[in-house]
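Re: [ENG-882] Designed sequences occasionally contain unexpected residues at chain ends

Forwarding the minimal case from QA. Structure tokens:
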């Protein structure tokens, strides 16, 4: 998967909708929850947010990711997904989101996943994220684990 192109796209496009449905199905299988209650397309339809799709050399949508503001200096990663695991797609999407968040003036990026989602926990730890106290709606949620990373590009 060396030839991956990542670019901002409409989060309501057919490819975006398909990727996010696959993500929801995957999360439901792993955690029992689709994650849909923690995301709204409307939350990323502003100049402080971004939704991207990763495409392979044939233009096929193979991954996606987004971020939205938590506050003026902190963005939150949402809807991270790669259709094919362990191929570097997720890392490329995450790196792209981090760079774009930094360009928009964010100095930190946070995210939440579920403790039971061991693949995601390991992925974020291997990409420089450190566990932080649960924030927002995840406070007092023992099934959630939150991560943060300083953006120093």
């Amino acid at each position: 998967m060396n030839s991956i192109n990542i670019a901002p796209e409409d989060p309501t496009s057919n490819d975006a909708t398909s990727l996010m449905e696959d993500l929801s199905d995957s999360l439901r299988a792993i955690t029992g929850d689709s994650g849909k209650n923690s995301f709204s397309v409307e939350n990323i339809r502003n100049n402080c947010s971004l939704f991207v799709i990763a495409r392979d050399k044939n233009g096929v949508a193979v991954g996606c990711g987004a971020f939205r503001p938590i506050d003026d200096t902190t963005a939150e990663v949402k809807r991270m997904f790669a259709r094919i695991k362990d191929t570097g797609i997720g890392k490329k999407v995450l790196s792209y989101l981090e760079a774009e968040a930094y360009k928009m003036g964010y100095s930190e990026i946070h995210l939440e996943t579920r403790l039971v989602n061991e693949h995601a926990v390991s992925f974020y730890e291997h990409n420089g994220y450190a566990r932080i106290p649960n924030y927002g709606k995840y406070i007092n949620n023992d099934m959630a684990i939150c991560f943060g990373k300083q953006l120093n590009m």
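QA comment: On inspection the terminal residues look reasonable. The two ends are 24 Å apart (CA to CA). Proposing we downgrade this to a documentation issue.
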